[in-house]
Amino acid sequence: MYKYQICFILNLILFVTSGQLKAKDSIGETLYYQRKFKDATSYFRVESIKGDKNNKAHNIFWLGQCLAALRQPDSAIVAYEYLVAEKNIAPIWKINALGGLASIYSYRQDTKKVEFYVSQMLLYGNQYPEKRDARYWRIMGNFYFDTYKNDLATTHFIRSANTAESQKDSIGLVGSYVMLGRVYERLEKNIQALHYFELAIKMQDELKINLHLPQCYQSVAALYENQNNFKKAFEYYSKGISLDTKLGDNYGRAYGLIGVSNALLNQGKTKNVASLIGEAYSIFIKYDDQPCIGYCLNLKGLYHQKNSNIKKH
Protein backbone atom coordinates (compact mmCIF):
# COMPACT_ATOMS: atom_id res chain seq x y z
CA MET A 1 0.00 0.00 0.00
CA TYR A 2 1.54 3.28 -1.06
CA LYS A 3 2.12 6.10 1.39
CA TYR A 4 0.10 8.57 -0.63
CA GLN A 5 -3.01 6.47 -0.14
CA ILE A 6 -3.37 7.84 3.39
CA CYS A 7 -4.58 10.97 1.60
CA PHE A 8 -7.56 9.03 0.27
CA ILE A 9 -9.06 8.70 3.74
CA LEU A 10 -10.80 12.08 3.59
CA ASN A 11 -12.47 11.31 0.27
CA LEU A 12 -13.45 7.75 1.15
CA ILE A 13 -14.96 8.70 4.50
CA LEU A 14 -16.70 11.93 3.60
CA PHE A 15 -18.02 10.87 0.20
CA VAL A 16 -19.69 7.74 1.60
CA THR A 17 -23.44 8.25 1.69
CA SER A 18 -26.55 6.17 1.81
CA GLY A 19 -29.45 6.38 -0.53
CA GLN A 20 -30.92 5.11 -3.71
CA LEU A 21 -31.61 7.13 -6.82
CA LYS A 22 -35.38 7.47 -6.83
CA ALA A 23 -37.92 9.96 -8.05
CA LYS A 24 -38.14 11.45 -4.56
CA ASP A 25 -34.42 12.25 -4.38
CA SER A 26 -33.83 15.98 -4.44
CA ILE A 27 -32.02 17.70 -7.26
CA GLY A 28 -29.22 18.40 -4.80
CA GLU A 29 -28.75 14.74 -3.89
CA THR A 30 -28.63 13.77 -7.55
CA LEU A 31 -25.98 16.43 -8.15
CA TYR A 32 -24.02 15.14 -5.15
CA TYR A 33 -24.05 11.57 -6.46
CA GLN A 34 -22.61 12.90 -9.72
CA ARG A 35 -19.83 14.66 -7.76
CA LYS A 36 -21.15 18.07 -8.82
CA PHE A 37 -20.54 19.33 -5.32
CA LYS A 38 -20.55 23.07 -6.04
CA ASP A 39 -23.92 22.90 -7.76
CA ALA A 40 -25.28 20.70 -4.98
CA THR A 41 -24.02 23.17 -2.37
CA SER A 42 -25.84 26.04 -4.07
CA TYR A 43 -29.04 23.99 -4.14
CA PHE A 44 -28.90 23.03 -0.46
CA ARG A 45 -28.03 26.57 0.67
CA VAL A 46 -31.32 27.75 -0.79
CA GLU A 47 -33.36 24.75 0.38
CA SER A 48 -31.95 24.80 3.93
CA ILE A 49 -34.10 27.80 4.86
CA LYS A 50 -37.35 26.32 3.55
CA GLY A 51 -40.01 24.11 5.10
CA ASP A 52 -40.42 22.65 8.57
CA LYS A 53 -37.61 21.71 10.96
CA ASN A 54 -37.10 18.23 9.54
CA ASN A 55 -37.04 19.47 5.96
CA LYS A 56 -34.47 22.08 6.98
CA ALA A 57 -32.49 19.42 8.88
CA HIS A 58 -32.43 17.19 5.79
CA ASN A 59 -31.05 20.00 3.64
CA ILE A 60 -28.58 21.25 6.26
CA PHE A 61 -27.16 17.74 6.61
CA TRP A 62 -26.66 17.50 2.87
CA LEU A 63 -25.16 20.98 2.84
CA GLY A 64 -22.63 19.70 5.39
CA GLN A 65 -21.88 16.71 3.18
CA CYS A 66 -21.29 18.96 0.18
CA LEU A 67 -19.04 21.35 2.11
CA ALA A 68 -17.00 18.42 3.41
CA ALA A 69 -16.69 17.05 -0.12
CA LEU A 70 -15.49 20.49 -1.27
CA ARG A 71 -12.80 20.29 1.43
CA GLN A 72 -14.35 23.03 3.54
CA PRO A 73 -14.41 21.09 6.82
CA ASP A 74 -14.83 24.10 9.11
CA SER A 75 -18.02 25.11 7.30
CA ALA A 76 -19.23 21.51 7.34
CA ILE A 77 -18.67 21.38 11.10
CA VAL A 78 -20.93 24.42 11.55
CA ALA A 79 -23.74 22.63 9.69
CA TYR A 80 -23.30 19.37 11.60
CA GLU A 81 -23.05 21.06 15.01
CA TYR A 82 -26.23 23.00 14.30
CA LEU A 83 -28.08 19.70 13.79
CA VAL A 84 -26.62 18.13 16.92
CA ALA A 85 -27.77 21.11 19.01
CA GLU A 86 -31.16 21.54 17.33
CA LYS A 87 -34.22 20.33 19.26
CA ASN A 88 -37.32 18.60 17.94
CA ILE A 89 -35.82 17.14 14.77
CA ALA A 90 -35.84 13.50 13.71
CA PRO A 91 -33.03 11.52 15.41
CA ILE A 92 -31.67 10.34 12.06
CA TRP A 93 -30.33 13.85 11.35
CA LYS A 94 -28.54 13.98 14.69
CA ILE A 95 -27.05 10.53 14.08
CA ASN A 96 -25.93 11.52 10.58
CA ALA A 97 -24.49 14.83 11.80
CA LEU A 98 -22.53 13.05 14.54
CA GLY A 99 -21.17 10.73 11.87
CA GLY A 100 -20.10 13.71 9.78
CA LEU A 101 -18.29 15.24 12.75
CA ALA A 102 -16.60 11.92 13.56
CA SER A 103 -15.40 11.68 9.96
CA ILE A 104 -13.90 15.17 9.88
CA TYR A 105 -12.12 14.83 13.21
CA SER A 106 -10.87 11.39 12.20
CA TYR A 107 -9.10 12.99 9.24
CA ARG A 108 -7.70 15.62 11.60
CA GLN A 109 -6.48 12.81 13.87
CA ASP A 110 -8.29 14.30 16.87
CA THR A 111 -8.89 10.99 18.64
CA LYS A 112 -10.71 12.42 21.66
CA LYS A 113 -13.31 14.20 19.56
CA VAL A 114 -13.78 11.19 17.31
CA GLU A 115 -14.35 8.93 20.31
CA PHE A 116 -16.82 11.43 21.77
CA TYR A 117 -18.90 11.72 18.60
CA VAL A 118 -18.84 7.96 18.01
CA SER A 119 -19.99 7.39 21.60
CA GLN A 120 -22.88 9.80 20.99
CA MET A 121 -23.77 7.91 17.83
CA LEU A 122 -23.83 4.68 19.80
CA LEU A 123 -26.18 6.22 22.37
CA TYR A 124 -28.59 7.37 19.68
CA GLY A 125 -28.24 4.07 17.84
CA ASN A 126 -29.14 2.10 20.95
CA GLN A 127 -32.05 4.43 21.66
CA TYR A 128 -33.34 4.28 18.07
CA PRO A 129 -32.16 0.91 16.69
CA GLU A 130 -34.41 1.24 13.64
CA LYS A 131 -32.27 4.23 12.54
CA ARG A 132 -29.09 2.16 12.29
CA ASP A 133 -28.87 2.14 8.52
CA ALA A 134 -25.97 1.30 6.20
CA ARG A 135 -24.36 4.69 6.82
CA TYR A 136 -24.49 4.17 10.58
CA TRP A 137 -22.67 0.82 10.45
CA ARG A 138 -20.19 2.12 7.89
CA ILE A 139 -19.23 5.11 10.03
CA MET A 140 -18.68 2.75 12.94
CA GLY A 141 -16.54 0.66 10.62
CA ASN A 142 -14.60 3.76 9.60
CA PHE A 143 -13.84 4.44 13.27
CA TYR A 144 -12.34 0.98 13.69
CA PHE A 145 -10.59 1.24 10.31
CA ASP A 146 -8.90 4.49 11.32
CA THR A 147 -7.79 2.96 14.63
CA TYR A 148 -6.41 -0.11 12.80
CA LYS A 149 -8.88 -2.53 14.40
CA ASN A 150 -9.26 -4.30 11.10
CA ASP A 151 -11.37 -7.25 12.28
CA LEU A 152 -13.95 -4.94 13.84
CA ALA A 153 -13.85 -2.69 10.78
CA THR A 154 -14.53 -5.65 8.50
CA THR A 155 -17.40 -6.85 10.70
CA HIS A 156 -19.06 -3.44 10.61
CA PHE A 157 -18.56 -2.95 6.87
CA ILE A 158 -20.14 -6.36 6.22
CA ARG A 159 -23.04 -5.41 8.49
CA SER A 160 -23.35 -2.15 6.57
CA ALA A 161 -23.48 -4.05 3.28
CA ASN A 162 -26.08 -6.50 4.62
CA THR A 163 -28.22 -3.63 5.92
CA ALA A 164 -27.96 -1.83 2.58
CA GLU A 165 -29.04 -4.98 0.75
CA SER A 166 -32.02 -5.56 3.05
CA GLN A 167 -33.12 -1.92 2.69
CA LYS A 168 -32.52 -1.91 -1.08
CA ASP A 169 -30.04 0.93 -0.53
CA SER A 170 -27.95 0.71 -3.70
CA ILE A 171 -25.73 3.71 -3.07
CA GLY A 172 -25.18 2.68 0.53
CA LEU A 173 -24.11 -0.75 -0.72
CA VAL A 174 -21.57 0.86 -3.05
CA GLY A 175 -20.07 2.73 -0.09
CA SER A 176 -19.87 -0.49 1.93
CA TYR A 177 -18.10 -2.27 -0.93
CA VAL A 178 -15.59 0.57 -1.23
CA MET A 179 -14.68 0.33 2.44
CA LEU A 180 -14.47 -3.47 2.33
CA GLY A 181 -12.06 -3.01 -0.56
CA ARG A 182 -10.05 -0.58 1.57
CA VAL A 183 -9.74 -2.85 4.57
CA TYR A 184 -8.81 -5.90 2.46
CA GLU A 185 -6.28 -3.76 0.59
CA ARG A 186 -4.69 -2.83 3.91
CA LEU A 187 -4.60 -6.50 4.91
CA GLU A 188 -2.90 -7.23 1.56
CA LYS A 189 -5.73 -9.53 0.57
CA ASN A 190 -5.56 -8.24 -2.96
CA ILE A 191 -8.02 -10.67 -4.54
CA GLN A 192 -10.77 -9.74 -2.09
CA ALA A 193 -9.92 -6.04 -2.35
CA LEU A 194 -10.07 -6.11 -6.14
CA HIS A 195 -13.38 -8.00 -5.99
CA TYR A 196 -15.08 -5.31 -3.89
CA PHE A 197 -13.64 -2.37 -5.80
CA GLU A 198 -14.76 -3.90 -9.09
CA LEU A 199 -18.23 -4.54 -7.65
CA ALA A 200 -18.39 -0.89 -6.58
CA ILE A 201 -17.33 0.27 -10.05
CA LYS A 202 -19.89 -1.98 -11.76
CA MET A 203 -22.73 -0.80 -9.51
CA GLN A 204 -21.88 2.86 -10.07
CA ASP A 205 -21.83 2.32 -13.82
CA GLU A 206 -25.27 0.70 -13.58
CA LEU A 207 -26.62 3.50 -11.37
CA LYS A 208 -25.00 6.10 -13.63
CA ILE A 209 -23.31 7.87 -10.71
CA ASN A 210 -19.71 9.01 -10.20
CA LEU A 211 -19.60 9.31 -6.42
CA HIS A 212 -16.76 6.91 -5.60
CA LEU A 213 -15.45 6.15 -9.09
CA PRO A 214 -12.19 8.16 -8.98
CA GLN A 215 -11.16 6.58 -5.68
CA CYS A 216 -12.09 3.12 -6.94
CA TYR A 217 -10.07 3.60 -10.13
CA GLN A 218 -7.03 4.74 -8.17
CA SER A 219 -7.24 1.89 -5.67
CA VAL A 220 -7.61 -0.71 -8.43
CA ALA A 221 -4.65 0.87 -10.24
CA ALA A 222 -2.53 0.61 -7.08
CA LEU A 223 -3.50 -3.05 -6.63
CA TYR A 224 -2.43 -3.84 -10.19
CA GLU A 225 0.76 -1.88 -9.64
CA ASN A 226 1.51 -4.03 -6.58
CA GLN A 227 1.29 -7.04 -8.91
CA ASN A 228 3.66 -5.34 -11.39
CA ASN A 229 0.82 -5.27 -13.91
CA PHE A 230 1.68 -1.77 -15.04
CA LYS A 231 -0.46 -1.88 -18.17
CA LYS A 232 -3.64 -2.36 -16.11
CA ALA A 233 -2.40 0.09 -13.49
CA PHE A 234 -1.96 2.86 -16.07
CA GLU A 235 -5.37 2.02 -17.56
CA TYR A 236 -7.10 2.66 -14.23
CA TYR A 237 -4.96 5.66 -13.28
CA SER A 238 -5.90 7.17 -16.65
CA LYS A 239 -9.60 6.51 -16.04
CA GLY A 240 -9.41 8.29 -12.70
CA ILE A 241 -7.47 11.27 -14.04
CA SER A 242 -9.81 11.57 -17.03
CA LEU A 243 -12.93 11.55 -14.83
CA ASP A 244 -11.49 14.04 -12.33
CA THR A 245 -10.47 16.32 -15.19
CA LYS A 246 -13.96 16.09 -16.70
CA LEU A 247 -15.53 16.91 -13.33
CA GLY A 248 -13.11 19.77 -12.69
CA ASP A 249 -11.79 18.07 -9.54
CA ASN A 250 -8.15 19.14 -9.50
CA TYR A 251 -7.65 17.67 -6.04
CA GLY A 252 -8.71 14.22 -7.21
CA ARG A 253 -6.65 14.65 -10.37
CA ALA A 254 -3.59 15.27 -8.19
CA TYR A 255 -4.02 11.86 -6.57
CA GLY A 256 -3.97 10.23 -9.98
CA LEU A 257 -0.90 12.20 -11.03
CA ILE A 258 1.16 11.04 -8.07
CA GLY A 259 -0.10 7.50 -8.63
CA VAL A 260 1.14 7.57 -12.22
CA SER A 261 4.40 9.21 -11.14
CA ASN A 262 5.01 6.52 -8.54
CA ALA A 263 4.30 3.75 -11.05
CA LEU A 264 6.64 5.26 -13.65
CA LEU A 265 9.45 5.67 -11.13
CA ASN A 266 9.00 2.09 -9.96
CA GLN A 267 9.74 1.06 -13.55
CA GLY A 268 12.78 3.32 -13.69
CA LYS A 269 11.06 5.71 -16.11
CA THR A 270 11.55 9.43 -15.51
CA LYS A 271 10.33 11.14 -18.69
CA ASN A 272 7.69 13.80 -17.88
CA VAL A 273 7.55 12.63 -14.25
CA ALA A 274 8.91 15.90 -12.86
CA SER A 275 6.06 17.88 -14.44
CA LEU A 276 3.46 15.40 -13.15
CA ILE A 277 4.80 15.64 -9.60
CA GLY A 278 5.05 19.41 -9.90
CA GLU A 279 1.42 19.75 -10.94
CA ALA A 280 0.23 17.54 -8.08
CA TYR A 281 2.45 19.41 -5.61
CA SER A 282 1.01 22.80 -6.60
CA ILE A 283 -2.53 21.51 -6.09
CA PHE A 284 -1.78 20.07 -2.65
CA ILE A 285 -0.05 23.32 -1.65
CA LYS A 286 -3.26 25.17 -2.52
CA TYR A 287 -5.23 22.93 -0.16
CA ASP A 288 -2.49 22.80 2.49
CA ASP A 289 -2.60 18.99 2.47
CA GLN A 290 0.56 18.31 4.44
CA PRO A 291 0.64 14.48 4.08
CA CYS A 292 0.36 14.71 0.30
CA ILE A 293 2.78 17.63 0.10
CA GLY A 294 5.27 15.49 1.98
CA TYR A 295 4.71 12.57 -0.34
CA CYS A 296 5.26 14.78 -3.39
CA LEU A 297 8.58 15.90 -1.91
CA ASN A 298 9.54 12.26 -1.38
CA LEU A 299 8.64 11.53 -4.99
CA LYS A 300 10.77 14.46 -6.14
CA GLY A 301 13.71 12.97 -4.25
CA LEU A 302 13.10 9.55 -5.80
CA TYR A 303 12.83 11.17 -9.23
CA HIS A 304 16.22 12.88 -8.88
CA GLN A 305 17.76 9.63 -7.65
CA LYS A 306 16.36 7.60 -10.56
CA ASN A 307 17.24 10.30 -13.08
CA SER A 308 20.79 10.46 -11.75
CA ASN A 309 21.17 6.70 -12.08
CA ILE A 310 19.92 6.80 -15.68
CA LYS A 311 22.40 9.54 -16.60
CA LYS A 312 25.28 7.54 -15.09
CA HIS A 313 24.50 4.70 -17.44
Automatic annotation (TrEMBL):
- The residues the entry assigns to the signal sequence are 1-23
Listed Pfam families: TPR_8 (PF13181)
Alphabetical list of InterPro entries matching this protein: TPR-like_helical_dom_sf (IPR011990), TPR_rpt (IPR019734)
Q: Which stretches are transmembrane?
A: none
Query: What keywords tag this UniProt record?
Result: Signal, TPR repeat
At the top level, the lineage of the source is Bacteria
Tell me the ranges holding the TPR repeats.
174-207, 214-247
Asked if Translocase is a keyword of the record, the answer is no
Cross-referenced PROSITE patterns: TPR (PS50005)
Q: What name does this protein carry?
A: Uncharacterized protein
Lineage per the UniProt record: Bacteria, Pseudomonadati, Bacteroidota, Cytophagia, Cytophagales
